Amino acid sequence: MSPLQKVLLILTLLFLVSVDAKRKRYIKSPRVAVPFPIFGAFDQKNPFLGIKNTDFETDFKGEWEVINPDSGVSAMQITLMPTNKIIVYDATVYRTSRLRYPEGVPCVPYIDPNSKQQLEDCFAHAMEYDIETNQVRPLKVTVDPWCSSGGLAPDGTLISSGGWNDGSKSLRYIRDSCPDCDFRESIDALQEPRWYGTQQILANGEFIMIGGRRAFSYEFIPKEGQKSTKAYFFPFLYETSDLDENNLYPFTHLMPDENVFVFANNRSLLLNPNTNKIVRTFPVLTGGSRNYPASGSSALLPIRLDDDKATSLETIKVEVIICGGNTPDAFITAEGQKVYLPALQDCARMVITDPKPVWDTEVMPSRRTMGDALNLPDGQILLINGAKKGTAGWWDAEEPNLEPALYNPDKPKGQRFKVLNPSGIARMYHSTSALLPSGKIWVAGSNTHNTYRDVDKFPTETRVEAFYPPYLDPNLNNYRPQILQDSSDKNLRYKARFEIHFSVPSGGQITKNDIKITIYAPPFTTHGFSMNQRLVVLNSGNVAQAIKGIYKVGSMAPRFPGVAPPGYYILFVVHRGVPSQGMWDKNVVLVTPLFIMEMLSCSTSYC
Ligand SMILES: [Cu+2]
């Protein structure tokens, strides 16, 4: 045997031993530490890197399923929690719902505004919805969270802010799920009443609270038990307020440079929340009003850290999309004359980070007001719920828009929309939706009245549906990745590489270009806006096949908290457009060293 043959033999034996060891590790040992080095990641010499396979195509137009025939509380405000429960609440003002407090829970005394009598409210206006069993558990709110806002704090606590009347300056907190877990309320924690305001997470994990009815200001949400000390006058909200407002629930998005993009009515700017300065303003978006009660919707397009150009803070591209709404006079026309003007039928995109940004408008397949715009794990955007005529407000809309529209931001203009199968249930004012880790869409709510109505043209909705987007086509299951959670990393640290292991039934050669790792920040959704929602496509390396059908990919966590603020994310592996189930049960959390330290010393206000 020649020296070369000897070397080859030794290498072959070493390789076989290593493969066998890896196989045993996969079979026997659930673990958290990384079993493989990320060899080859970011290797530009790999010949497969240049091959770009197209996404798998499907004709599946989606499917609807009623998953709970009566959840009890109409889903006006929702957020998905890391406990795999959706926290749902509407308003105490109705003094009714379809869910009573269980035996032993005291009712809430209140003074009836008409009779001035002291009465008792024994109905739940909040609940916890289990997305695995579709069962609900009543929760208690005592001051009114009607048309409020909220967000998921970095430690997994839902912080809900504002509302109406006795709830307008309140904060509510809930994190854990247990038989006795319930909201903690802080009644007078904000400086100004915040009804129809927006709560936006900042790069440091804290929240800014912007606007609200007759609140032309913003303030910062204090730690639990403390009070906000100052409201900052924000003339922009005064300037963009029509006779019928049309600038409530402003659309806000956190930018990589840690400024906050704020869009109200038809205008937008960047606010520096540290210096309280307006950093820049943007062109007016013509065509109508976009915020409440005209109620269009807004999302960020996926932030592409896998873009070769996204190498620094300055070169990360951020693009916003705003869809639908109505004309400035649509609300007063609906309220006064019961004439429901057609909703807007355009979407407009603008690259916020461009030195000379312009709005680029395109036509939607149908008109929409009060719809939600949800980022999907595969990078597309789902427009769902809402109406074709009228505005937000009680009895102010007609013609539910039953057909979701799927928007592919990467296709050429004119080919981006796909109309999906319709629901049979109207989801108009006070309806909501949420992306689940399974990739399904949870759809609920719709209450167009000043109380719960069982019989009406648009009855108060407590039915919950699941919508299966096209990527859940069963014909794609052979290509669907499955994350091997036990052997994948779950704590993502800024600027640090991590490794994900997954399997694909079809097996075969899978290259870097076939796989996207995306992380999704679950939003707080109400009134057509999903606060704090974002999807980030991470920069990933080569894909290596560990053993047949099992792969590993090295990926890089975001470098800047302005790109992805600290907190919980659902992580997806997307194989040529086919997403895995999201990894989230085991708490994928993007953490700063400071956050880790706080958690260890339990010094946060939520411990
Ligand atoms: Cu409302």
UniProtKB/TrEMBL annotation:
Q: Which UniProt keywords apply?
A: Signal
Q: Which SUPFAM superfamilies match?
A: E set domains, Galactose oxidase, central domain
Residues annotated as domain Glyoxal oxidase N-terminal: 76-471
The family database entries (CDD domains) matched by this protein are listed as:
E_set_GO_C
- The Galactose oxidase-like Early set domain covers 480-584
Q: Tell me which Pfam families the record gives.
A: Glyoxal_oxid_N, GO-like_E_set
What is the residue range of the signal peptide feature? 1-21
Name the Gene3D superfamilies on file. Answer: Galactose oxidase/kelch, beta-propeller, Immunoglobulins
**Official protein name in the record:** Galactose oxidase-like Early set domain-containing protein
